[in-house]
Amino acid sequence: MSILHPLQRMLTRLSALLASLAAIAGCTATARTDSAERPPAGVPGVERGIHPEWSKNAVIYEVNIRQYTPAGTFAAFTKELPRIRALGVDILWIMPVQPIGTLNRKGTLGSYYSIADYTSINPEFGTEADFKAMVYAAHAQGFKVILDWVANHTAHDHHWTREHRDWYTRHADGTLSRPIDPDGKETDWTDVVDLDYGSKPMRAAMIGEMRWWVDSTGIDGFRCDVAGFVPHDFWAEARAALLKAKPDLFFLAEWEDPKLHASFDMTYGWELFHLLNDVASGKKKASELASYFSGFETKFPADAFRMNFTSNHDENSWNGTEFERMGANHKAAFVLDATTAKSMPLLYSGQEASFNRRLPFFEKDSIDWNGASLAAFYRSIFDLRHTQDVLWNGQWGAPQVVLTTNAPDQVFAFVRSRGDKAVLVATNFGKASTTVTLTDFQTTGGYTDWFTKAAVSLTAGATLDIPANGYRILVK
To answer: How far apart are CA 72 and CA 64, in angstroms?
Structure first.
């Protein structure tokens, strides 16, 4: 339940809505308006991103409040913050925390993504005061907090379905439609109904609801669910309006479209994720990674942030853990996720404890934290990213040069360098250790093995030993 009196809550909502309307009225149709907004070379129509300074070498962690602890509450999760901070995490992405619809609910507890009220708290997790206390504690320990935002649809029993039926997509008989995919087809998401972004009042109200969280709880941004289902110009309006309230907000799109970088700091690296699943499981050769980076990834602005991952809530629940999908190569895949150009790595709840079970999406099933710890591995990777500026995010990082080796089917290697600094990454997805020759290697000199701290001298045509299902990271 809210700690605000209903009248206070209504006035707070009205204030946020009026502020968003005023901001929208004064905005252009682009997400940002300073002189740095210009299309990067080779990417027509895509505006450059201008990211908050605090995000330059950040890594992100997805928090599943319901399953994180046996209690499944904000208060219980808050006690875990020091441990997560010790991993080297910077951004906490909190899955939706609002009340879940009961009409046409899936399972016992329902989906986080079936929102019944945008500016209330799911009592399953605690109170508004508990959420604010969690955010305050996270900020005190150096975290930024972004909230999962579901703008495309609401629960069937969201109050807008009664008060503003014209804000929804409707069938010819007046019934509300399920969400519509980008191909114009109605989805099978039976627990939610589609919002109509042709409605200007609805757009303004949505921005007002987002503004409420920024103003009232102090969050630092949003992860926007199925962002590609929502018109791009809405995200431009929303970002422009919300930045007036807090200029260093961070926006993550659950989508993979270069044009979204006009309004979002970061998009999902879905294609790389699926390719890594196939390479790690032996369905595809490592050489296809070179094709990916020379093709698809070049479509994105040079300073785009791309969120890479080996697991998240969807993959864990519906397609399996990283151990199921990637087997012994799950660590090599994460090394690539964390070090390739544009990348910001994501760690999902429980990965640091080798959690190896699919969590049911609509029921309570707590993470088992007693698995073999991978905390030292992830902490070392995050330390690498924090200290080596050639690996930093977006415009702060250095370009990536793919290296030619004599074992392209198993090994993928690259170097990122600037000035006298360099990081060389080599991953072996094969089942046997190998010694590779870096046939075209030019970034020669003295390196240090990041994990063993041993000195390594690399000359032109140098060789490198890589363990089976393993990796080497050398720092100059």
So the answer is: 9
Structure-block tokens of residue 431: 């089942």
Identify which of 22, 476, 3, 4 has the alpha carbon closest to the alpha carbon of residue 245.
Answer: 22
Tokens of 37: 């907004």
Residue type, 12: T
Query: What is the Cβ-side half-sphere exposure of residue 312, based on CA atoms within 13 angstroms?
Result: 18
pTM: 0.91
Which residues in 263-292 are b (16+ Cβ under 10 Å) and which e? bbbbbbbeebbebbbebbeeebbbeebbeb
Instruction: Quick: pLDDT tens for 154-184.
Output: 999 999 999 999 999 999 999 999 999 999 9
* Domains of the chain, first to last: 6-397 (3.20.20.80), 411-475 (2.60.40.1180)
Read off the pLDDT band of 397 (50, 70, 90). very high
Q: Give the type of residue at 5.
A: H
Q: How confident is the model over 427-459, as pLDDT tens digits?
A: 999 999 999 999 989 999 999 999 999 999 999
What are the phi and psi torsion angles at 114 (to 5°)?
A: -110, 90
The answer to whether 391 touches 384, Cβ cutoff 8 Å, is yes
**pLDDT above 90: residue 241:** yes
* Contact by Cβ (8 Å): 66, 36: no
